[in-house]
Design brief:
alpha/beta; Multidrug-efflux Transporter Regulator, Chain: A, Domain 2; Methyltransferase, Methionine Synthase (B12-binding Domains), Chain A, domain 1; Rossmann fold; 3 domains; two-stranded antiparallel ribbon; globular
Length: 306
Amino acid sequence: MFRSIAFTIFVLKKKGVIVQATIQYFNSIDAAKILGVNVSTIKRWTLEGKLECVTSSGGHRKFLFAHFVNFLQQNQKKIAKSDFFPLSRKAHSRLVWHILKGNYDAVVQPMLKYALKFDRGMVHNILNCFSLAQHPINEIFDHVLTPVLHQVGDLWERGEISIFDEHFASQAIRDGLARMQGGLKAPDKIIGNVFCLNMSSELHDIALKMVDHILEMRGFNIFFSGQVSPSFDVHRIVTKIQPVRIYVSSTYVANKSMIQMEFDRIVESCNPHNITIFVGGRGFDVINYDPQRVQRLHTFKEVAIV
């Protein structure tokens, strides 16, 4: 969308693990598109000190997204002209403002509304705006998408929406995630292979797809099995791709004995290869596992740092 320049820095995380992070700079043409003005206005604002920038050794202006946030904070009437949403920018100016400021709670209900309308375009626009604002994707997943998905599920359980509404809303979010992934920049260096799979009874793979996105940004090469994954073939797969980690998601357990047997088979397949096993989802409230062998993750923040 924008011809930005990406610079890579290295950030030390706990336990001495080095994770790549990317700082994205925008040029004057990008800034003009984002703020809805022409390039000469951008130049004038920078000279007047209204819009911050970084000047390169060659004299070119470069902008961080924080510069746009600070500018819009001081000039709130300009939000309606900013180029985040292709349609009805004035109507969405308040939503853009909350996204810029990272007010996640204020975005949950609008995102729920658009998901229930199966408005894939607006779901994608919201996610794209978060991405442009360089909010960590694990925070977007934890504080926006997870509450939205829980509310969709609760509405269906209470009979307030149909199963079709639930599927349409979930698919709108999944489509938005798929489009969002195309705009994410993963590190060039691959840490290792990771196998992501659902238990065989799972009908949705959205949570696992979010795990996929985060791990890809960390530098892992992802093998994603999607929904309704047969566990009987796991041994052959792990032997073939030799993953360093396996992530298993379970959000719903209809037949505990069957799912327990499947999960035990997964663990047995991983043991000879010394593969680290991570699990997540409400299903593991009832699935038994050895915490010495299996590590349970409760948030996407944990996926990002563990």
